[in-house]
Structures are given as structure tokens and as C-alpha cells.
């Protein structure tokens, strides 16, 4: 089955948060060195595109970036901490078919502590409430699951159910992109709460069928997160699709296969070449060889999403099997 290639555009390393699991804010880019929006016209049509950062809404030309990419993408996504409410809501009103995920790390105390952003949760929640007044419907929060925010997982999910918005999840990582190499990943305490969270997803109480089905799919992805949290070293996620199913463009225009490697494997620069030229280059072949040899076993939704489309029977069987196990009072089978 064919899947849509995803481009993640890291528009800036500037950030108004001070997250303890991501040090992008310690290495900010200057506005004058960040890629010009016109360079994004070199991207082909038909991509799923995620606009991220740093905090992408700090760019004064964020509206121009959306004007260029909205018509040519199959789905345009904004990842944001939700602090700049007016900018985010304006984008949602102008481009109602975009996907917006507002990053939080838990309820107010944990979120503001981990993100080092005063009243960060307040801004994120106010942004979500304002977004619900717009024509944009694909909205929700996202959370990076780590050993120090697990206690809020279920409560955060229940808030999203009450608001009728999505909750995306990912796991903490170390890499060039996060400017971190000392994040703790494995946690017994987090495992127990994460188990409760996935059970809540598999027994979703959402009113709409489509929303319940999304919860079931996210439960399957969280199988990989769970096994990462317990320290599994291999075998817990599909083969990586870096460079083929997805790629990244950094604030300088450098194109690389992924954001999970220790060093950035640059394949070319979008300021100088089209994406087709970059992907056909010797540097791209060298980077893809590194991808094939990589043993980091990241747990990113972008890999799982493509595999779920290609092999839908795998998540369907896992979901059905574990819904039955929960109904019978048994524990989740994480294999």
C-alpha cells in the first residue's frame, strides 16, 4: 500500500520555552540565517508537511510559509507550544483544513516545570479553547512521555476526551535535533502509569466512532513507547522509514533523513537544490547507508503510521486481542 511521504520543516531553533528534555532553546538560530519561505517552493506537491521548531510561531513570516505550503500539501500540520494564541488562531481561520497539535507535558504544575514557561499550560489551554471556535477541526494536544511526567498521562487524556480534542503522544529521545544526549528513557514508575493510559485508550469513552478508532490506533503506537520505557533494545517497532517515508529540513535548509540520530546526516540543501536533486545525490546515498546501519530504535509515530497503512492487519489484531484481554480482566500483551 502506498503512503504519503512526510516532510518535517524545522523552521527555527528559537524557542520561548526552556524544556528540560530539549535544549534547542540553548542554540537559537538568528532570524536572518533562517531559510527563506520561498525555498519551500522547491518541495514537490503531495507531501504531508509538519511545521515545527523551536517554536514556529516566533517566525514573523509564518503566515507566508503557510500560504506557500497549504495549497501543495496533502495535510499541513503545525506543532506549537500554544503560547502565541492570536497567531495560531489566525492561521487556523485562514487555513481551516490544517492539523494543529499544542504541546504540553502534563497538567499545569508539571507542564510549566518541565517547559520552563510561565503560565505555559494556561496559554496552551486558552489556545485550544479559541481553536474550538474556528472552522479548524483537526486540533489537539501532544505530550512527550518521559520518566518525570507520567503521573499526569491519564488525567491529560481525560481532559482531551472532555474537550473532544485529540491527544498525540511520543517518547523522550536523545539526538542532534533535541540537542540532548542525557535524557533518561527507562522508567519502572512510568511503565505502570503508561499501562493505565493505554488501557484507557483501548476502552475509549469518546462519543464519536472515528475518535474512538483513533484512540485504538494510538494505543497500538504506544506499544512501542511502552517497550522503550521498559528498556527493550530491539524488536519493538517497525523498520525505520527515515529518508524514504519521511525527512527533515533544518532552519538553514539542510535536508536529512531523520531527527533521531546522534549527528545530523545532511543530504543536501534546499536553498541550492530541489528535493529530487538532493535525494539523487551521493550525499543522500551515504546518509541512507547510515540509516540502514542505525541501531537507535527510535519510537516515533511517523514510522508507525506508515507501517500501519502498509500492514493494517498487524495493529488491528493487536487492538482486538488486547481489548479482549482487558474485557477478561487480563493484562495487556505488549508483544
Major sheet summary line = 9 strands, mixed
Rg, Cα atoms, Å: 19 Å
Task: Give the beta-strand count.
Answer: 9
Backbone shape:
globular
Separation, N- and C-terminal Cα atoms: 24 Å
Beta content:
5-15%
Give average pLDDT, whole number. 94
State the low-pLDDT regions, or none: none
Per DSSP, the total helix count is: 11
Q: Please give the share of residues in helix.
A: 25-40%
Care to describe what's here?
There is one protein chain. 38% of the residues lie in helices and 14% in strands. The mean pLDDT is 94. α2 runs parallel beside α4 (120-131), α6 (188-202) packs antiparallel against α7 and α7 (209-229) crosses α11. Strands 6-5-4-3-2-1-7-8-9 form a nine-stranded mixed β-sheet, with helices on both faces. The protein has helices at residues 62-69, 85-94, 108-115, 120-131, 153-163, 188-202, 209-229, 275-279, 282-293, 301-310, 313-327; strands at 6-10, 47-52, 73-80, 99-103, 138-145, 166-171, 246-249, 254-256, 268-269. The chain is α/β, with parallel strands linked by helices and 335 residues long.
Amino acid at each position: 500500500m502506498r503512503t504519503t511521504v512526510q516532510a518535517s520543516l524545522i523552521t527555527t531553533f528559537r524557542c520561548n520555552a526552556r524544556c528540560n528534555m530539549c535544549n534547542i532553546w540553548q542554540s537559537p538560530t538568528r532570524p536572518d540565517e533562517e531559510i527563506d519561505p520561498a525555498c519551500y517552493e522547491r518541495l514537490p506537491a503531495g507531501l504531508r508537511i509538519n511545521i515545527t521548531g523551536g517554536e514556529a510561531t516566533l517566525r514573523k513570516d509564518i503566515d507566508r510559509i503557510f500560504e506557500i505550503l497549504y495549497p501543495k500539501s496533502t495535510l499541513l500540520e503545525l506543532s506549537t507550544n500554544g503560547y502565541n494564541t492570536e497567531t495560531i488562531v489566525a492561521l487556523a481561520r485562514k487555513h481551516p483544513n490544517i492539523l494543529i497539535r499544542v504541546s504540553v507535558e502534563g497538567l499545569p504544575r508539571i507542564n510549566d516545570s518541565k517547559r520552563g514557561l510561565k503560565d505555559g499550560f494556561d496559554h496552551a489551554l486558552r489556545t485550544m479553547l479559541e481553536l474550538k471556535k474556528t472552522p479548524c477541526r483537526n486540533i489537539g494536544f501532544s505530550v512527550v512521555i518521559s520518566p518525570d511526567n507520567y503521573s499526569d498521562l491519564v488525567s491529560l487524556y481525560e481532559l482531551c476526551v472532555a474537550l473532544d480534542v485529540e491527544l498525540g503522544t511520543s517518547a523522550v529521545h536523545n539526538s542532534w535535533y533535541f540537542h540532548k544526549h542525557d535524557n533518561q528513557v527507562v522508567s519502572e514508575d512510568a511503565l505502570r502509569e503508561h499501562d493505565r493510559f493505554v488501557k484507557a485508550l483501548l476502552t475509549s469513552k469518546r462519543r464519536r466512532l472515528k475518535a474512538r478508532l483513533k484512540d485504538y490506533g494510538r494505543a497500538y503506537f504506544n506499544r512501542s513507547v511502552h517497550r522503550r520505557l521498559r528498556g527493550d533494545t530491539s524488536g519493538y517497532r517497525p523498520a525505520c522509514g527515515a529518508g524514504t517515508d519521511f525527512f527533515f529540513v533544518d532552519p538553514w535548509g539542510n535536508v536529512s533523513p531523520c531527527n533521531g540520530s546522534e549527528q545530523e546526516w545532511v543530504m543536501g540543501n534546499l536553498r541550492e537544490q530541489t528535493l529530487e536533486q538532493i535525494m539523487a545525490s551521493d550525499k543522500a546515498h551515504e546518509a541512507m547507508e547510515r540509516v540502514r546501519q542505525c541501531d537507535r530504535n527510535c519510537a516515533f509515530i511517523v514510522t508507525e503510521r506508515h507501517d500501519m497503512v502498509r500492514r493494517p492487519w498487524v495493529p488491528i489484531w493487536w487492538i482486538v486481542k488486547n481489548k479482549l484481554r482487558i474485557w477478561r480482566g487480563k493484562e495487556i500483551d505488549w508483544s
